[in-house]
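name: query_chain
kind: protein
chains: 1
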Amino acid sequence: MHGAQVSLLIALTATAIVVVAGTAAGIAAGYFGGRTDAVLSRLMDLTMSFPSLIFMIAMMSVAKDVNRVLLMTAVIGLFGWPGVARVVRGQTLSLKHREYVDAARVGGSGPWRILTRDVLPGVAGPVIAYTTLIVPGMIATEAALSYLGVGVRPPTPSWGQMIAESVAFYDTDPMYFVIPSTCLFLTVLAFTLLGDALRDVLDPRSGRA
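structure:
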């Protein structure tokens, strides 16, 4: 249970960072277009093409005296935002010329009001569904880093750390390996199924496609 608290804390906090940063960048790129879109799109491409796992391992190995939970949250969140930004950018491009957005623009509403009152509610559904699909990946990434010995360290518990330590005791006590592995599997599966269900509810067209 203590391992679950740490794993979920890192995963959910990193997901929050990813969603906020990705939504802001995607809306800005899609709505303003032009140079803003070009700069943010190139930044998305650069971040997505970077070998994130290698960079995470290097950062976690070098920064040994930094709070591991905070560092893992920041590093994992750093590489996750472009996926959300691409989804939001595409939605924003389809929304910014809708009648109600044009009406708000003609009525004298500024960009900030249009983005928060008209565009953001339109992209909220896909973002919520995509968020629940991000969480399993975040949990797995945290577990993988802890398993490799560059993540959370004792005495702070983590599922990945427990799985790594259990390898030495597998012959004498296999439950030491089975329990954290099962918890990790069920948690990732639960969030994945939740994400699929929300996506079908909030964006029915994706389910039919």
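note: DSSP finds ten helices and no strands in the chain.
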